[in-house]
Design brief:
By secondary structure, this protein is α/β, with parallel strands linked by helices. 47% of the residues lie in helices and 18% in strands. Strand 3, helix 7 and strand 4 form a beta-alpha-beta unit.
Length: 335
């Protein structure tokens, strides 16, 4: 048995233990606000950031942490150089707290669906490319067959989406497991490889060349995703491997709308998912006045996957969308 599992049993005894301890925790003053706080501390790794996320003051957050440690009779976190880190007791408490909050959310969703007569709601997060090629067609299928289902979609980077998934803000995601998260927390099914390209405005000087090389690119402004994201790292690797200087003038944004606006209004270059680039280039409206730059190199990104949390069952409406996305990915897969 792992240390965290052993501690888990001490804080919350299972079927072999007594229910009296859980009743005692409630009688001792354990509240939903405490559960939200420990989850926020685990997610943000700073008491001040957790307080901001819950819209309370830092002194109030510190008091809540002290209350939790008094109720549980255990130290839940310890100070580290850049904030706080949960102890084994803190990790066990956060894991159970997240499960309880998720179950309460599912109760609310199920009761709301029963009251309204709808088919429930789904929360899906996706990186850009599969949002276009996989999520949109699957959502259209679901909406046509089950018009009562409400689908909520968030397009973001894998780093953001994976943490939202763990925090139960997404049912499942189409993304990649970040390097700094434990892959054992997730169920992962690889479904595709993301290809990217470079976009420029129509009439850009580089379009006069039949094919652009890396050496042609550093002299222009660039619009990148935030530092550390996969697409940005891949572009930087290509420059470094070719011995070409990195671009010196850079705008960082995760917004595809802002990226497109900057590219359309300047000579800037931006790397984006090819599916998104094709979609925007085919729009034909002013916001879509871009061209895909023909290059002598390929931009392939790490494969993306359907990801859910281990031990957390998908609601029926989410499972329906999950299965449709998986089915479509297999249809599009090369033989």
């Amino acid at each position: 048995m792992r240390l965290d599992d052993d501690v888990d049993e001490q804080l919350f005894p299972g079927e072999g233990g007594s229910d009296l301890q859980s009743v005692g925790l409630l009688r001792s003053g354990l509240k939903l606000s405490h559960l939200r706080m420990i989850v926020a501390i685990e997610e943000h790794r700073q008491v001040s950031a957790a307080a901001d996320a819950l819209n309370i003051s830092q002194p109030a957050a510190s008091r809540m942490l002290t209350e939790m440690e008094t109720i549980l009779k255990a130290q839940l976190c310890e100070r580290v150089s850049r904030g706080v880190a949960l102890t084994a007791f803190g990790r066990a408490f956060a894991r159970r707290a997240r499960t309880i909050l998720l179950e309460l959310r599912e109760v609310d969703r199920e009761l709301s669906a029963l009251k309204s007569g709808t088919g429930g709601s789904v929360f899906l997060g996706s990186v850009t490319a599969p949002a276009i090629s996989l999520a949109v067609p699957a959502i259209q299928q679901v909406s046509a067959a089950y018009p009562g289902i409400e689908v909520n979609v968030r397009v973001e980077t894998s780093n953001v989406l994976a943490r939202e998934l763990l925090a139960a803000r997404q049912d499942f995601i189409i993304a990649r497991v970040p390097d700094d998260l434990n892959p054992r927390l997730f169920n992962v099914t690889e479904i595709g490889i993301e290809k990217a390209c470079l976009i420029v405005r129509k009439g850009h000087p580089l379009l006069e060349k039949p094919v652009a090389s890396l050496a042609d690119l550093p002299h222009y402004d660039w619009v990148f995703q935030p530092a550390g994201t996969l697409l940005r790292r891949r572009i930087e690797e290509l420059f470094l491997a070719a011995g070409v200087p990195l671009p010196s003038t850079v705008v960082n944004t995760s917004s595809i709308l802002l990226t497109t606006a900057i590219v359309c209004g300047s000579n800037a270059i931006a790397p984006v998912a090819r599916d998104m680039a094709v979609f925007i280039a085919d729009v034909g409206a002013q916001a879509g006045e871009i061209s895909i730059l023909n290059t002598d190199f390929e931009i392939d990104i790490k494969p993306y996957s359907l990801i859910s949390v281990k031990g957390r069952a998908l609601p029926p409406s989410a499972k329906l969308l999950y299965d449709l996305i998986l089915q479509r990915s297999r249809m599009l897969a090369p033989d």
